[in-house]
Amino acid sequence: ETSVQTLEFQAETRQLLNLVIHSIYSNKDIFLRELISNASDALDKLRLESLTAAAPGADTSDLHIALEADTDARTLTVRDNGVGMSRDEVVELIGTIAKSGTASLLEKIKAAHDAEAAQSLIGQFGVGFYSAFMVADKVTLRTRRAGTDEGTLWESDGDGTYDISTVDGLPVGTSVTLHLKPADGEDGLADYLAEWKIRAIVKQYSDFIRWPIRMPVERGEENGVAVTEMQTLNSMKALWSRPRAEITEAEYHEFYQQISHDWTDPAETIHLRSEGTFAYDALLFIPSQAPFDLFSHQTKRGVQLYVKRVFIMDDCEALVPNYLRFVKGVVDAHDLSLNISREILQHDRHIRGVRKRLVKKVLGAIKDMQASDAERYATLWDQFGRVLKEGLVEDPDSTEALLEVISAASTHDAEKTITLREYVARMKDGQDAIYYLTGATRAVVENSPHMEAFTAKGYEVLILTDPVDEVWVDHVAEFDGHRFQSIAKGQVDLDHEDGDDKDDEQKAQREADFADLLPWLAATLSKQVKQARLSSRLTTSPACVVGDTGDITPMLEKMYRAMNQ
Ligand code: ADP
Ligand code: MG
């Protein structure tokens, strides 16, 4: 052992540690899931490296996770013979929280009204390795990176600093030893040394982990000596590869919670298998609530790629478009190279086919939900609608399917959103366009002078208040043969749509009345407006400013300005 260095945790890490230690989670059991999931990742990485020649000669003959409870020392150890970490990696990965959005998450947690809200926030974030400090007052990590000789010892009691030193003689892989706090029923601290407890947690959270999770178990006595045997605690069944008919809803939900680290049930489960020329299994979930960082730039996509049960990558952008980034799940392709890179995936014809099918399935599931369970659909739209609308700009191939599932506020009903189908079904005789108006809030839109004539004449107008609405309405040509028409742009000839001759006479009369005023207005305001004309869109306001048909709207102008464009 060389000299010990004491280092400080990065400030955000320290704050998060504090939150964790002061027990934001009421469910402390999840610490074991987190450590096992890290161990499993490390085994995946080593296996992949050995197969792709990054770590040739690595011993992958018995990759596994071992749990060891020492009742005398009151320690629980989670050991893996995976890829391990170098000293630099330990400092970088364990001493720092590299996740995006940590700072803003901490702000939100501080602002949360109650423990439950705070817990929900941190649950969405996932505290990973640090969850160990919920149950331990000291954590010792020993690790050796595959392909190197040097081992690293890391130790901390979670108070802001950690000790790190170099050690010899460690096996390849990582062990994490928790010096357990005293068990205390009231505090939610179970006896994590008890065999039944460890078994129960593994079964609940880590049953599908594809590596054996082993534990020595006492099996009675022989000649006065305790006999122990090694047992594998998890089933290791990759749920997606089993036939749908044999899987219960509870199993799907458990699996979802395991891969998403969410504790709620998913809103929708989609399980499909393709046995064509490019065989794959896909198991996708639509969560019931949005993660806190859905709109952060670095949000990852939730679909993982496996090749024949070997984990290849998280966040597989080739499999799902950005606007479906909230979908979680697994795609296991049977005939891909384990060496496949993200770049190659992007251009792979088969993968494009898979992506197309997945998008169709997800949008189809949402459409079915809309038809069969309005309440569940409304919740889903509330959580993910804004993201789905990005698809109208991003994915022209899915425009039709997306327009079928979107909903929007409208002047028809102040309480409920409506679908475009409903809008079209209510269109007035002779009405040809779908009218909409964008603005910052419903109140702003409703009180706009542009609205007057439309409301007076009984036309329904969509009220679009999300920033993304500004963009998609320009991208989408039409729905069901009807174009989208902003009531704030160009000439809207409502009189004409009525097909009323008397109105035409009145109009001619009015034009004569104002023949002198209009050129004067145009000349006086020449710097501000392109044109002054008589309008049929107002009933009580004397005047309003409208954009030209091709102009960008004031809100979009603001957006572009904010983006420095
Ligand atoms: P996450 O797993 O979400 O990345 P964690 O806090 O659980 O976050 O772990 C942080 C990082 O530390 C991991 O991404 C991994 O690189 C490293 N790590 C943790 N545990 C192990 C382990 N048992 N073996 C190798 N690396 C590990
Ligand atoms: Mg982790």
UniProtKB/TrEMBL annotation:
Q: Which residues form the Histidine kinase/HSP90-like ATPase domain?
A: 27-184
Q: Where is the signal peptide?
A: none
Question: What are the alphabetically sorted keywords of the record?
Answer: ATP-binding, Chaperone, Cytoplasm, Nucleotide-binding, Stress response
Q: Which Pfam families does this one have?
A: HATPase_c_3, HSP90
Listed InterPro entries: HATPase_C_sf, HATPase_dom, Heat_shock_protein_90_CS, HSP90_C, Hsp90_fam, Hsp90_N, Ribosomal_Su5_D2-typ_SF
Q: Where is this region: B?
A: 343-558
Record-stated family: Belongs to the heat shock protein 90 family.
What this protein is called in its record is Chaperone protein HtpG
Give the species: Catenulispora yoronensis
Gene field: htpG_2
